[in-house]
């Protein structure tokens, strides 16, 4: 089939969907920038891990904090935001058969983001902003640092505006009938949370910038912390939404899974929008001047309704995959379907690892650490970093990497080189990050602080904390190697990959139906037996970890 | 399918295992929600966030008065101060020291005032692993009761510049 391209759209040879060429251009630009920032953040990661691995202790002290600032911003902000803009532009055009609202707006947003990000990186490496990602006042960086962050935030907001405008135009022009697809719905939830988040960023960064310029008085340090975390934690909830949307998407692409109940999946996204904005309290639980009532209410995200949303997705995603497999005839026992999953598909294995690491490690530790009182034994220790490396790296970044195994063939229209490497890459990365996360978590449980160059002067951290820091170091080496493999595969494919225009893309592997498969033999309501067993195990792990932490808390000195 | 428009009439209540899981998850969320108010009234470790506005200079003045009134020893050139049981203790954080060192008695309760003179600092008591945030401009009051004896180290766990990792303080409990 020949490429049916007009000046504005082309027809995808694999899915038959029209791809808006403007959207495609900005998906490409954003994705390439995202991967470059990922690489920069990855180089920083290995330097940091080999410094905190006390036996090696690589960097000098000033460069440690400088690279730590660099790592945080490149990974948590630039890599993720650029990738999310790509996801948003995809989700509002391709599934809706719509054209991107405005090319000009997209250029403005993209250039602002890029200029801002480059500015921030330059200022950090010049040594003018050794303030870490949080840049808590009265710690002060060069004004260009704040200006860069403001540019990135406003640029992203402009991209989000383009997304909403596209949704509006698509609805008005009836490019689709009825409700938007689930992936677009999830992306919309992410975009709504992003707006709230970025507004917090503007509220906190603009007065900080004007203060750094000497135009206005110093903002209150506690005020700064409160509003900053309205940006800091929520920006990670944007990632959660985008990641979950990708889980559904990859589940569908690799196994044909469809949501068992659209209402439940969409309802869970709505819970994120309504309740996740309270999450900023997590970082202020042992701060002065915020009261216990405020802490308890916000910490629980109002009755943990946002946590409920994640637990719902944690069930519906694997359940939909299991049902798809059972419909295909893999009905043996509890887990007979698991071995027949398309494990040779790197997008699929990345998504599965993302669900498992995010759920079991990231989710359970996050809710526990974020509990009002338990935070006393966790605040600013490596347990916090252990938690968010499981959520943001093992969860979000791995899901984004997985999706890239489809983005490059479908959007860049090139088939991957080094397919064998691609197959092991998610396992290496997931395994490495698991070691990083667990190493950090256990070291943190022994009191090892985060953001600390050297724990020896304190003289209180024994052999076991050094062992866990070593495990973190080895894990980091593995994970960064896997990250390099990923970047090399992506760049190599863009340069040397075979063009696939005019023919379907290389099949990474999808689950095939057995002959004689009979959908009607599967119980639609209780068929997901394996998922039921897995989520039961999850709930037990959760309860054990949660109450073990209350016990650990009860063992320390009474404090009010 | 997650990538295509759902069929008409997709709105329906959860059924079967999905309904069961949502119910279970909701019950678990409620258990967690109740735990925090429960601990607030029945538990002994709560971070209430009691704090008062204070200028760094004023806090340093109070700390100096506290040191003059109760110095009982010396640790590495830093005075060790013993507050009266039930009394007030002051601890000033600045780049890169905790001032002064404290001597407390097991089983007695103290009101520990924490404040920073310059930047954010982190009060991390090791090897107990109790952690609190210390901010300039805020007198953060912790009502603490040591229940174990020995030598405890205060580690700074909020980044405060190059000497951050060497910012070490002491609490001795007898």
From TrEMBL, chain A:
It holds the Pfam family COX1. GO terms for cellular component: membrane. The chain crosses the membrane at residues 25-50, 70-93, 105-125, 145-170, 182-215, 235-255, 267-286, 301-325, 346-368, 388-412, 424-447, 467-496, 530-548. GO terms for biological process: aerobic respiration. SUPFAM superfamilies: Cytochrome c oxidase subunit I-like. GO terms for molecular function: cytochrome-c oxidase activity; heme binding. Coiled coil: none annotated. This is Cbb3-type cytochrome c oxidase subunit I.
UniProtKB/TrEMBL annotation, chain B:
Residues 84-174 form the Cytochrome oxidase subunit II copper A binding domain. GO terms for molecular function: copper ion binding; cytochrome-c oxidase activity. The keyword RNA-binding does not apply. InterPro entries: CcO_II-like_C, Cupredoxin, NosZ/Cyto_c_oxidase_sub2. Keywords: Copper, Membrane, Metal-binding, Transmembrane, Transmembrane helix. GO terms for cellular component: cell envelope; membrane. The chain crosses the membrane at residues 20-39. It is found in: Cell envelope. Coiled coil: none annotated. Its main location: other. This is Cytochrome C oxidase subunit II. It comes from Pelagicoccus enzymogenes.
């Amino acid at each position: 089939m020949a490429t049916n391209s007009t000046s504005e759209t082309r027809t995808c040879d694999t899915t038959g969907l029209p791809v808006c060429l403007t959207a495609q251009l900005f998906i490409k630009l954003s994705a390439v920038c995202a991967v470059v920032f990922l690489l920069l953040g990855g180089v920083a990661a290995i330097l940091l891990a080999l410094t905190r691995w006390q036996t090696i202790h690589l960097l000098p002290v000033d460069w440690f904090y400088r690279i730590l600032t660099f790592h945080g911003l490149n990974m948590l902000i630039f890599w993720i935001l650029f990738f999310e803009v790509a996801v948003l532009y995809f989700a509002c055009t391709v599934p809706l058969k719509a054209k991107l609202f405005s090319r000009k707006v997209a250029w403005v947003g993209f250039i602002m983001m890029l200029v801002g990000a480059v500015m921030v990186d330059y200022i950090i490496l010049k040594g003018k902003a050794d303030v870490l990602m949080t840049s808590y006042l009265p710690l002060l960086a060069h004004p260009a640092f704040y200006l860069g962050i403001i540019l990135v935030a406003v640029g992203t907001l402009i991209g989000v505006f383009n997304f909403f405008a596209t949704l509006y135009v698509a609805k008005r022009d009836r490019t689709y009938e009825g409700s938007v697809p689930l992936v677009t719905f999830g992306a919309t939830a992410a975009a709504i949370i992003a707006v709230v988040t970025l507004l917090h960023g503007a509220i906190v960064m603009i007065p900080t910038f004007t203060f750094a310029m000497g135009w206005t008085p110093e903002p209150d340090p506690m005020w700064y912390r409160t509003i900053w975390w309205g940006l800091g934690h929520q920006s990670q909830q944007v990632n959660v939404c985008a990641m979950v949307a990708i889980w559904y998407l990859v589940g569908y692409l690799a196994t044909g899974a469809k949501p068992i109940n659209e209402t439940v999946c969409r309802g869970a996204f709505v819970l994120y929008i309504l309740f996740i904005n309270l999450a900023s309290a997590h970082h202020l639980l042992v701060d002065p001047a915020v009261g216990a009532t405020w802490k308890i209410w916000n910490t629980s995200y109002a009755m943990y309704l946002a946590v409920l949303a994640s637990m719902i997705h944690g069930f519906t995603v694997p359940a939909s995959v299991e049902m798809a497999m059972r419909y295909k005839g893999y009905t043996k026992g509890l887990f007979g379907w698991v071995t027949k999953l398309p494990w040779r598909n790197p997008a699929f294995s990345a998504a599965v690892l993302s669900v498992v690491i995010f759920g079991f490690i990231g989710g359970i530790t996050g809710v526990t650490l974020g509990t009002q009182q338990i935070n006393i034994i966790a605040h600013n220790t490596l347990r916090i970093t252990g938690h968010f490396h499981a959520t943001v790296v093992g969860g979000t970044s791995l899901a984004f990497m997985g999706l890239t195994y489809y983005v490059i063939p479908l959007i860049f229209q090139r088939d991957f080189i080094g397919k064998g490497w691609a197959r092991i890459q998610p396992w290496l990365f997931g395994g490495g990050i698991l070691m990083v996360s667990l190493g950090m978590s256990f070291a943190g449980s022994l009191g090892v602080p985060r953001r600390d160059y050297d724990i020896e002067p304190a003289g209180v951290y024994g052999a076991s904390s050094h062992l866990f820091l070593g495990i973190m170091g080895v894990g980091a080496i593995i994970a960064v190697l896997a990250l390099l493999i990923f970047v090399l595969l992506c760049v190599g494919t863009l340069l040397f990959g075979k063009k696939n225009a005019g023919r379907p893309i290389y099949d990474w592997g999808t689950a095939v139906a057995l002959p004689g498969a009979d959908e009607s033999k599967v119980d639609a309501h209780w068929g997901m037996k394996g998922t039921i067993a897995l989520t039961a195990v999850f709930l037990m792990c959760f309860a054990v970890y949660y109450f073990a932490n209350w016990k650990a808390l009860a063992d320390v000195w009474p404090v009010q | 399918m997650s990538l295509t428009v759902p069929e008409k009439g997709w709105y329906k209540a959860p059924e079967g295992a999905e309904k069961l899981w949502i119910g279970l998850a909701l019950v678990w969320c409620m258990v967690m929600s109740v735990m925090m108010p429960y601990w607030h009234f029945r538990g002994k470790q709560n971070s209430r966030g009691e704090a008062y506005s204070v200028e760094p200079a004023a806090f340093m003045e109070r700390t100096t008065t506290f040191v003059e009134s109760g110095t009982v020893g010396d640790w590495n050139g830093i005075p060790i101060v013993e507050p009266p049981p039930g009394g007030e203790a002051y601890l000033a954080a600045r780049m890169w020291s905790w001032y002064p060192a404290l001597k407390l008695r097991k089983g007695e309760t103290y009101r520990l005032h924490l404040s920073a003179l310059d930047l954010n600092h982190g009060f991390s008591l090791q090897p107990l692993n109790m952690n609190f945030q210390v901010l300039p401009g805020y007198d953060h009051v912790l009502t603490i009761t040591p229940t174990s004896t020995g030598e405890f180290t205060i580690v700074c766990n909020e980044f405060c510049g190059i000497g951050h990792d060497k910012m070490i303080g002491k609490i001795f409990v007898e």
